[in-house]
Amino acid sequence: MRRKWIAVLLAAPLMLAAAGEETDALSFRFIPSANLIKNSDFGQLNEEKLPSDWTFDNCSRSPVFRTIVSGEGADRFLEVTSAWSQFGYWLQKVPVQAGKTYYASCEYQTDGPCGGLWIQGETEKGHKFRSVNEISSRFGDLLTEQMRDFVPERYIYRVGPDRWCRLEKEFTLPADKGDGVCQLRVGVYGGFAGYVRLRNPVLREAACGLEIRIAGQGWTELRVQGAKPEVMKLDPASSEQTVSTVLPGVCRYICAELTGLSGVKVSKEVYYE
Description:
mainly beta; 273 residues; 2 domains; Jelly Rolls; Immunoglobulin-like; five-stranded antiparallel beta sheet
């Protein structure tokens, strides 16, 4: 699991009635749930030099698909070569539980075809679920330039033959339909001839642990919007303390609010990848 501390500078000085000091830092560490995908780095290969624990579904029944594993370690990826308007996926089946929310993602490069993130499955009581996200090779620098005045750049997928782009999806199984099996499918979803490269496929529970480190004395309470628990009591005598909570789903934004002994409140909005 990846763990990452993000330091946040508060915009205003914090006047602490008890200590008479100023502090200007919070630190956050996000702790994702375990990845349920086996061989997610494509490092384990079978006799055909293809990734173990994965199966290729040639939806187009096309003889043109070619797959190779390239690179080493963190730079390893799966490359699928395709012709025009072909559909084919590498898939893995994962048990999922009723009532839980899951997060799926994969990173893509492409020089022509569309990259596809396809989720489908069925529960014990016959509930079927399906979702397809796709990214076109046209969504690169040209689109970013054309949309610059209308959409913030961070909301535009920028994909290309030398730039990785992540597709992601969050979904919840009904609580009353039983457990089930989900197929995570990553690969080619139509488009032009060329290749799609894939790396870091993920399927995990969406809930994410969050550790928050607070510097400075005089703080009595921390509130993190949407977390469980949302409100955490602090020790005003402590010069540095760490508290833990859980974000129920994947989010790219959190709002944290500190309360001091005198009742002063300081909040901070954080956007992160």
